Amino acid sequence: MGLSTVTAKQLEVQRIVDALYKAIAQHRLPPGTRLIEAQIVETLHANRNHVQAALQRLALQKVVTIEANRGAMVSQPTAKEARDIFSARRAIERAIVESITPAIMRKQRQRIATHMNNERKATNDTDRRAIVRELSEFHLMLGAICGNSVLSDILGNLMVRSSLIVALYQRNDVPSCASDEHQQIITALEEGDHENAVAVMLEHLDELEGQLALEASAPEEFNLKQALSD
């Protein structure tokens, strides 16, 4: 009974973490947004203790900042953090790309094709949230299929933190993550050309970082309940 109770609590905390992660990654909760516990409890039909545990976990992962007398808010990465996170992404995504074999690509053919189709549809439309979601999902998909859960978990955290950086520092309103570069990576991996796949990925990340203007503007006010309800 004790074990099942612990497991139930862990699952509930993870559910809350996942909901906040998703809202932050999709720019529904931009940097600086106050995360009011009562609103999270109401919107997610959650226990306050579980919400507090979820916020503490996100704080350890640098996605949320908790300050005395001010509560929790979505983190606002500094310019140095932005550079550090992209440096870490280069290392992690290089390792992920290098571990994906042609056999994995064949096994995951349907999943990859479905994603690339969804990505092309999104980028041909004007829904920024859908574009951001699908372009980010490409990187997460590679992490998921590479067979190394540690690399995948690290990338998941880096991608959420990257979304905060993009929300703060991107020079324009057009997602810099490009679908044609994604297709080049897929083609190279299918052919077993890791050298080219890595080169395109690193160039891709360099371009994304190069489109950042490392001067943050003041965060706007956002509706927490609405963001978590989407």
UniProtKB/TrEMBL annotation:
Which GO terms label this protein's molecular function in UniProt? DNA binding; DNA-binding transcription factor activity
Q: Does the keyword DNA-binding apply?
A: yes
Query: Any idea which UniProt keywords this protein has?
Result: DNA-binding, Transcription, Transcription regulation
- Domain HTH gntR-type stretches: 10-77
Q: List, alphabetically, the SUPFAM superfamilies matched.
A: GntR ligand-binding domain-like, Winged helix' DNA-binding domain
Q: What Gene3D superfamilies does the entry give?
A: GntR ligand-binding domain-like (1.20.120.530), Winged helix-like DNA-binding domain superfamily/Winged helix DNA-binding domain (1.10.10.10)
Record-linked PANTHER family = HTH-TYPE TRANSCRIPTIONAL REPRESSOR NANR, TRANSCRIPTIONAL REGULATOR, GNTR FAMILY
Q: What is this protein called?
A: Transcriptional regulator, GntR family
> What organism is recorded for this protein?
Pseudomonas abietaniphila
